[in-house]
Design goal:
The structure is a homodimer of 492-residue chains. The first copy, chain A, has 492 residues and is α/β, with parallel strands linked by helices. The first copy, chain A, folds into two domains: 273 residues, Aldehyde Dehydrogenase, Chain A, domain 1 (3-Layer(aba) Sandwich); 181 residues, Aldehyde Dehydrogenase, Chain A, domain 2. Chain A has 15 helices and 19 strands. In chain A, strand 13, helix 12 and strand 14 form a beta-alpha-beta unit. Chain A is globular. Chains A, B: Keywords: Oxidoreductase. Chains A, B: One of its GO terms (molecular function) is oxidoreductase activity, acting on the aldehyde or oxo group of donors, NAD or NADP as acceptor.
Chain lengths: 492, 492
């Protein structure tokens, strides 16, 4: 706990040594490492679930599911690496006849260097110490130093030990992974500003993320800080759909809004629709569903306090009216599902109404017409997701709204809710600023590996000394671009 | 010339309108645009070469070649787009049987938004107004505003008019491309800080690049600034090679060093070798070659002045000795080939010796042994390229040096010189900071397109409304990842 600056520097020196030492290791060995860590996490028994439950207030079922998801992340990122997806291997062969002679050029993605990871409190497994950032950095070939989340230090330590066992069993040097527990702000600062660290992964609040981004930008050699900072994930409820199935949508919407006590960065905290009797009917169902929803313990005291504070901040703005609250009184530390509303005109000129309220809270924006909905979309800050609830006819009718919405988000959904974030290649979990510090990269799905790599070209390099993915024989059997043709064939 | 802030804002509003309007255009139309611009550039006759020659002092042969390269950039980036390379299209199909049901997810790369481009003076065609940045932004689907380089305003205007004709002929809105000529620093600042601009491309000096990077970072919504800022491109001359063919290497090295009066960002301005009689013999040949090389006109007066100034800065450092100068006296505005040397120990503790001297200047670093060469490599700042001149036996012997060198650069060469930068997919023209502001992206080759895109996921989106690259039928016939398998097949 609370290591000194010297201790952290010693950890980083080890990480750099591990980086140089493991650069020569083949992709095969990296796969072994990934699966060894997955095995170790899988082997952690009910004690892990119990400890995590105690530290996070999350129910057993959720934690068991999250653990499986975490193991799947390690294994599926290993599979992506095995397929060569994250390598983007490309070869342009030489042509000695050309004037001047054309050299042989071969490109692959190499690891950036040691990575610092700051986990999130709301996913103690999947987005924390052994979460997606660590798994994707390892898949990229980068050593990792995790600063464990102070909300779940015991869980973090158990996971760190599992990773360390996986590292040892697969023959990687100890410096490949380190775990730092500290309550001091400085510890994080030392990590991000140390010359050895070449990238940072972070999931959490805007304030926390931007503090790291600034540290990264202001280094003598700026480094990328991938901060996923959450958003309010607007839902646009379109006309015909509202008319046809408003009532059942209200129930489904409240289900997504209150899932996990609303503690997801993809929680749909804003609902936008055209005002009128259909919206009134929808709100009536919404009210019933919210009143029937149960308050529940939030992750920790700080989060529960922030929920109250931020909810108050939004609901105290001019023109905001509370529509419904959970009927059951919330006890200390619990989050109470709440829905409020505001007119579109108010929303358009008040930025505070876009503040994220982390928890089971939604604001309904009542627009006077389709055009005002477009204006609302145009005013939105960057979002992880935007959702369209509509009929296919609605989608055609609202083409301009949809064009506007696409500019604002990283993932768009049709008649589905954003709270499930699938771990697949086609997932983009990121979005325009301020949803993420860099919306060009995802933090979920195997493409997350690319955050920790950079392209590297070899010119006229001897075949025997090339990495496997670029050798003539293609020993990995992966798809490569060879003279602009995608192929798994060896080169003659 | 020198538009006001209001005029620039009007230009940017048009760019944003063009962005929204062209988002619905299919990939096919973008291909037509790319080839239309290529046709217009190709059609520019001897007048272009004459004007550019007058403005840049570059010889006709070089300019004719650079024009062909520029046209090739437009066409080859169009071909890459046609193949779908820059789209990274990926599909994970739904599974209704799973609990909870697995949604359909499809991902492609969409344009970031309007891009501001700042061209370089040393490539008035290939890295300027109609250069790689503009071509790759168009291929990505982004409107472009170019701030023409003040060193060649007439050339820039002719190119801008060619692009505008291509835009008009292919039916794109005028706002797709704008050209700003201004001597004021503010004009660039207005462009980079305007909310409409979503990325910046720049090739030039460290000071110029970093000024833009800071503007980009300090916006309320930070944006990526891709600044390629040059480097000194170290050449490591290894033991056995030095012994076997030192003399002929010296001549070839001077050829690369003095090509284009040394005005390339890949100019090999540092040569590192172990001191001894073999190096003395190499230096003897080097001296002869440099003395025989001719001074020649540099791009403009400012560059010639900076060359003298920066050369003086390096050669006045402690322990630096001038080895050879071109025998012919340089006249006003000419750059005179010059080589100096310094001992490894001096190099290790003096950062000034790593300053880029843009022009035909090289510093030879004499190391006492292989270990000191490694130390020199470890002290290097980020580089676009590093070159190893060696036998295969040398490469094995110097494995640790090579591991160190790879950390420092974006492209590594074996028995070849870095001044040729092939326009191919496998080229990486970028490198760790400060060679580039972001070494994870290339500014040459079709992968340059990726700088101006971001991934975007569609969840359960109706097939008819998906972009072509994600439709079930695969109308573009491109390779996609479908449920983790690479395939051109349609989806049933």
């Amino acid at each position: 706990m609370n290591p000194s600056k010297q201790e952290i520097e010693a950890i980083l020196d080890k990480a750099q040594l591990a980086f140089v030492e493991t650069k020569a290791k083949a992709i095969d060995e990296r796969l072994t490492l990934m699966h060894a860590v997955a095995d170790e996490i899988e082997a952690l028994g009910p004690e892990l679930i119990a400890v995590a439950g105690e530290e996070s207030n999350l129910p057993e079922g959720r934690l068991v599911g999250e653990k499986a998801r975490t193991v799947f992340q390690w294994r599926s990122y290993a599979e992506a690496l095995k397929r060569g997806d994250s390598l983007d291997a490309s070869i342009d062969t030489a042509n000695a006849e050309r004037t001047p002679p054309k050299p042989d050029l071969r490109k692959t993605n190499i690891p950036l260097g040691p990575v610092a990871v700051f986990g999130a409190s709301n996913f103690p497994f999947a987005f924390s110490t052994a979460g997606g950032d660590t798994a994707s950095a390892f898949a990229a070939g980068c050593p990792v130093v995790v600063k464990g989340h102070p909300g779940h230090p015991k869980t973090s330590t158990m996971m760190a030990q599992a990773i360390a066992r996986g590292v040892a069993k697969s023959g990687f040097p100890k410096g490949m992974f380190s775990h730092v527990l500290s309550n001091s702000y400085e510890a994080g600062q030392w990590l991000v500003t140390h010359p050895v660290i070449k990238a940072v992964g972070f999931t959490g609040s805007y304030q926390g993320g931007m503090a790291l981004v600034e540290l990264g930008n202001n280094r003598p050699d700026p480094i990328p800080v991938f901060a996923e900072m959450g958003s309010i994930n607007p839902v646009f409820l379109l006309e015909e759909k509202l008319k046809l199935s408003g009532a059942e949508l209200a129930t489904a919407y409240v289900g997504s809004l209150t899932l996990g006590v609303g503690q997801f960065c993809t929680n749909p905290g804003l609902l936008v629709a055209v005002d009128g009797p259909e919206l009134d009917a929808f709100i009536e169902s919404l009210t019933t569903a919210i009143e029937g929803a149960a308050p529940a313990m939030m992750l920790h005291e700080g989060i529960a306090k922030n929920y109250l504070h931020n909810k108050e901040l939004v609901t105290s703005q001019e023109g905001v009216e509370i529509l419904a609250r959970a009927a059951r009184e919330a006890s200390e530390g619990q989050g109470s599902p709440t829905v409020a509303s505001v007119m579109g005109t108010e929303f358009l000129h008040n930025e505070h109404l876009q503040e994220e309220v982390f928890g089971p809270f939604a604001l309904v924006v009542k627009c006077k017409d389709a055009q005002e909905m477009e204006q609302v979309a145009a005013r939105l800050k960057g979002q992880l997701t935007c959702t369209l609830l509509g009929t296919e006819a609605d989608l055609t009718q609202y083409a301009r709204l949809i064009a506007q919405v696409q500019i604002k988000c990283g993932r768009i959904l049709f008649n589905n809710f954003p709270t499930g974030v699938e771990v697949v290649k086609s997932m983009h979990h990121g979005g325009p600023f301020p949803a993420a510090s860099d919306g060009r990269f995802t933090s979920v799905g195997a493409d997350a590996i690319k955050r920790f790599t950079r392209p590297f070209s070899y010119q006229n390099w001897p075949d025997a000394l090339l990495p496997d993915e670029l050798k003539n024989a293609n020993p990995l059997g992966i798809y490569r671009m060879v003279d602009n043709v995608r192929s798994t064939a060896p080169i003659a």
